[in-house]
Amino acid sequence: MSGKVTLVGAGPGDPGLLTVKGRAALAAADVVVYDRLVSPAVLDLIPGTARQIDVGKEASRHPVPQHRINQILLEEAQAGHSVVRLKGGDPFVFGRGGEELETLARAGVAFEEVPGVTSAIAAAAYGGIPVTHRDFSSSLHIVTGHAREGEPLSIDFDALVRARGTLVFLMGVTAMPIIVQGLLEAGMDPDTPAAMVENGTLPSQRRCDATLSTLPRQAAAMDIHSPALIVVGGVCALGKELCWFERLPLHGKRILVTRPRARAGTLSDKLRSLGADVVEYPCIETIPILPCPAMEAALRDLSAYEWLAFTSPTGVETFWFCLRELGRDARHLCGVKLAAIGPGTAKALADRGITADLVPGTYDAAHLGGALADAARGKVLLLRAAEGSAALTDALARRGIAYDDIAVYQTLYLFPYTRALRKELEAGKIDAVTFTSASTVRGFLSTVGADADFSRTVGLCIGEQTAGEARKHGIPVRVAEKATIDSLVELVSHSFLGEQRKESKEKP
Ligand code: SAH
After folding, report:
1. Backbone phi, then psi, for 19, in 5-degree steps?
2. Is the minimum distance from the CB of 227 to ligand 1 under 6 angstroms?
3. 42-53 burial, b for 16+ CB within 10 Å, e for fewer?
4. CA of 111: how far to CAs of 85, 420, 431, in Å?
5. I want to staple 56 with a disulfide (CB 3.0 to 4.6 A). Which of 4, 36, 141, 189 is the partner?
6. Confidence label for 500 from pLDDT (cuts 50, 70 and 90)
């Protein structure tokens, strides 16, 4: 049976601008054929099970020719696959989406089109430029600045100037001086506001403000590169006042997030919504130790314990898995008191209908140990990581509290030594690294090398124990007020508050 091709607009870069329907199509894809302009953050949404075909790669500066792309789509669909053809922005706005669908229609292959948010409107919007405004323009013209091969640029400048609307040029970076000259010769006022938005909607976005006559000089001074839009018209004057995106507190900051993949999402999303350029580096993974005879035995004999303590959501998850395996449910916990190291762990319990009896005032191993030692009369069961902090058991031992410390998950260090990351770090291109546990510090060190120069970054740590591990290796640190993700996010934004935005483009 023949498959189907869904042509999906990926939006201009910010993964939040991929449509709900586009995301659903991606999630169901067997094969994804994508272009150069699709941002890495959108590519991250492709399921691991889907085969990815990059047709935008400039191997010897020649991307895969259009007829070959058409052929790939046809072949993959005819082989019975669910194919998503992913294109930057909207597929029908200078995206050759129409041509691809024509080929499919002629071959009788089923297809659908999911429109995308076009850069022509969104990149301007993220630059603070509304493409229409009652005071300035009543029409919008989207024009290509790219000529067909071997032909000169064919733009009717007289008509454009007469229309008095907002002009947006795509693919116009190279031809920009010719476009400006054409508009001036057709009689446009040289003082007409004009702007360029480079890497619109991406953390690296930059806006160049000018007038029509000064645009070539200003853009050259800022070294504006493709992909960029040229916008010409009165609305450009609003950019300075309305450029909300570039004013986000973490705009232009590159932040490495080192959590395990399953847990990185919330932290990364929160940092991204503050404008950060988030690089997810899940250098550790937590693996449940299953089967876990020690935990099973403790579970069967749970009444021997007064307290059951968890130090992470992963511990709770592993415990619950084991409980179900033994054919038990939450009622089995009747009679035992529950302690959680912090709100995240308490929430993992709450999600299962259980309220923690104890959460220490400060969310770390030492304080959990102290609080348990105060509260416990009987024995304590600790279900936690194989390399859990000794601060917890020390606190109990000091006060003569009996405990069993059972390792229910272990940490894997995923990435081998990565030279490229170390180079970026040492060149000052990573403004901060977030650490949410001592094991993330160890994972990070195993990827960049413990002897790297950390002086040009800062380790933003969730708590004292994590910070202690980082300090041991000479990483400058700051510590969140409370050991929660929200507090860590606050620490990140405070760390960069009031700092001058980097104006100059950093070249790799
Ligand atoms: N179909 C796409 C446009 C493809 S043509 C869309 O609807 O957005 C490619 C041109 O789009 C680039 O040369 C550039 O002018 C513009 N473009 C694409 N992404 C952009 C971005 N993030 N910021 C600024 N311009 C962008």
Report:
1. -70, 160
2. yes
3. bbeebeeebeeb
4. 10, 41, 44
5. 36
6. very low
Q: Is 12 in the pocket of ligand 1 (CB under 6 A)?
A: yes
Over residues 23-36, the pLDDT tens digits come to 999 999 999 999 98
Query: Residue 42: CB within 6 Å of ligand 1?
Result: no
In ligand 1, the atom with minimum distance to the C-alpha of 90 is 7
Single-letter amino acid, residue 417: Y
Q: What residues are paired with 142 via a beta bridge? A: 168
Q: Give me ligand 1 centre to Cα 167, in Å.
A: 14
Q: Which of 86, 99, 126, 170 to mutate to test the pocket of ligand 1 (most atoms within 8 A of CB)?
A: 170
**Which helix (H) or strand (E) covers residue 198, if one does?**
strand 193-198
Range in 181-190, 403-412, 493-502 with the lowest mean pLDDT: 493-502
Using a 6 Å cutoff on CB, does residue 390 contact ligand 1? no
Q: What is the pLDDT of residues 256-275, one digit of tens each?
A: 999 877 776 789 889 988 99
pLDDT digits (tens, 9 = 90+) for 71-97: 999 999 999 999 999 999 999 999 999
Task: Please report the sign of the dihedral spanned by the C-alpha atoms of residue 93, residue 26, residue 108, residue 57.
Answer: positive
Buried b or exposed e, range 192-225, using 16+ CB within 10 angstroms: bbbbbbbbbbbbebbbbbbbbbbbbebbeebebe
CA of 210 to the centre of ligand 1 (A): 20
Give me the amino acid identity at 368: L
Residue-wise pLDDT tens digits, 300-309: 999 999 999 9
Q: Is the pLDDT of residue 57 over 70?
A: no
What's at 372, amino acid-wise? L
Ligand 1, atom 6, residue with closest C-alpha: 89
Residue 310 φ then ψ, to 5°: -120, 145
State the Cα–Cα distance between residues 84 and 117, nearest whole angstrom. Answer: 17
pTM: 0.78
Q: Read off φ and ψ for residue 62, nearest 5 degrees.
A: -115, 110
CA 25 to chain centroid, in Å, comes to: 20
Identify whether 291 is preceded by a cis peptide bond (ω within 30 of 0): yes
- Which active-site residues does the annotation give? 35, 57
Checking if the pLDDT of 227 tops 90, the result is yes
Residue 228 in contact with ligand 1 by CB distance below 6 A: yes
Looking at the DSSP bridge assignments, the partners of residue 156 are none
